[in-house]
Amino acid sequence: MNNTKRHPKGLYLLFVTEMWERFSYYGMRALFMLYMVQALLFDKETASQVYGSYTGLVYLTPLIGGYIADRYWGNRRSIVTGALTMALGQFLLFLSACYYQQAELAKYLMFCGLGLLILGNGFFKPNISTMVGRLYREDDNRKDSAFTIFYMGVNVGSTLAPLVCGLLGNTGHPEDFKWGFLAACIGMLLGATVFQLFKNKYICDPDGNPVGMAPAVSHEKKQQAQQSPASNSRTWLMVAGTVALTLLFSVNWNAMDKGIFADADWIGSLIYATAIIMPLLIITDRSLTRLEQVRIGVVYIIAFFVIFFWAAYEQAGASLTFFADEQTDRHIGSWEMPAAYFQSFNPIMIVTLAPVLAAVWSFLGKRGLEPSSPRKQAIGLFLLSMGYLFIAFGVKHVEPGVKVSMIWLTGLYLIHTMGELCLAPIGLSLVYKLSPARFSSLLMGVWYLSTSAANKFAGMLSGYYPEAGVAKSFLGYQVENLFDFFMLFVFMSGAAAVILFLLAGKLQKMIQE
Q1: What domains sit in the chain, N to C, each tagged with a CATH number?
Q2: What SS3 state is found at 336?
Q3: Cβ proximity of 85 and 120 under 8 Å
Q4: What is the pLDDT of residues 110-120, one digit of tens each?
Q5: CB-CB neighbours of 400 under 10 Å
Q6: Which residues cross the membrane (predicted)?
Q7: Residue 82 and residue 192: Cα distance in Å, rounded?
Q8: CA of 62: how far to CAs of 26, 68, 119, in Å?
Q9: 416 touches 404 (CB < 8 A)
Q10: Is the predicted pLDDT of residue 392 greater than 90, yes or no?
Q11: Rounded to two decimals, what is the model's pTM?
Q12: Residue 214 CA from chain centroid, whole number
């Protein structure tokens, strides 16, 4: 074996496929909130609820897609099916924007498109990254750099998407949104086409065997699957528990006179119920040792704090898009930058700052000063809080409709990117490190579940973005202006940072065990 040779060409095929998928997702996301408010005339609270439900379900369906791929389809078929389904979803959004003046038809097409995007992502997302490692032998030391190269595909797609789709769709004219959605559709079709054309040639292991084929299920395995009543009973217990909690969370206790499920948020209830039941089902498995349960408990605690991070961070596609569009002076000379362009700032900053932060950790590590993993995550939450504090003072005493300098939103994204680099990679590393091998996929699913819950929560919080003549209150906290709104995230993420920092020592001891 020669670990110094070049990476297999299959890695670059996966890079390009993932790049176009991220182009499609972030291109649509850059326009989605603006489309609902400016073209379909949704109020901001309703648009935020739809956005939160969509992004929440996007991270929920990979549980189903991963299961189907592992048991029946394999990675290859799942990726192509998911990509084509998402392309069709983007095309329905294009049609929705074509008929935006026919409100009912446009809404129907939009929700059908969102459903296909959610379904397609479930098949695509959990399968493409798992194929990267299979291109190498188990002891190949090029794996780390391979995943780094692959992750660059995510950032390249995330950077290009708002620039291209924003230029075409975010023109200030509602009739132009369709071109941004069409660009996202074409990007997804390009990714699917490239993968389909070259997968048989390049997606192979070091011995030349195809990677990601449908699993071969032997007669013995079929019999074992049919003869596992304990497994079946736990599956039914999970389904029953999820249904029961979904119903419980959907009860509107403040409007019982209108009906027990009046104005129920069924999607949010399902996401939150699944995020509770799945972790409970895993940690109560009788095959786990006490030490394994402790390690899984650490994963759960970290996943809980991650919810607060992403709920505030993901305002980038929701309330911060409103702020960029309505109250940010985007003029550079005589040119006015589209509001969607701000969503390219984060991936550009990630590529720029990731090597810097890695060098900082290395410098501190050589001197025995590098923070533990839980403390790094607490630092990430603290930086998130500081980003919102920065922009809160930028808008203090600013009247509605008055535009402020781009420096405030740019500064927020810069601080948030540093926070993301402290938290996100560390969390993924801990999940891999602490998960028992037989539960690694399920626990990665739990990690995605926390992101799903966070995105739904983000949509709900975005609904508190101040609107003229609308009184809004969150748990007794009055949101009357932008300063109040941004301070809500300062308090939330700041409190989470303090609590995690206080728990960090205990968590690190549990990790070291």
Answers
A1: 7-211 (1.20.1250.20), 285-513 (1.20.1250.20)
A2: strand
A3: yes
A4: 999 999 999 99
A5: 11
A6: 23-42, 48-68, 80-102, 108-124, 145-169, 181-198, 236-254, 266-284, 296-313, 345-365, 377-395, 407-432, 444-465, 485-504
A7: 9
A8: 18, 10, 9
A9: no
A10: yes
A11: 0.83
A12: 27
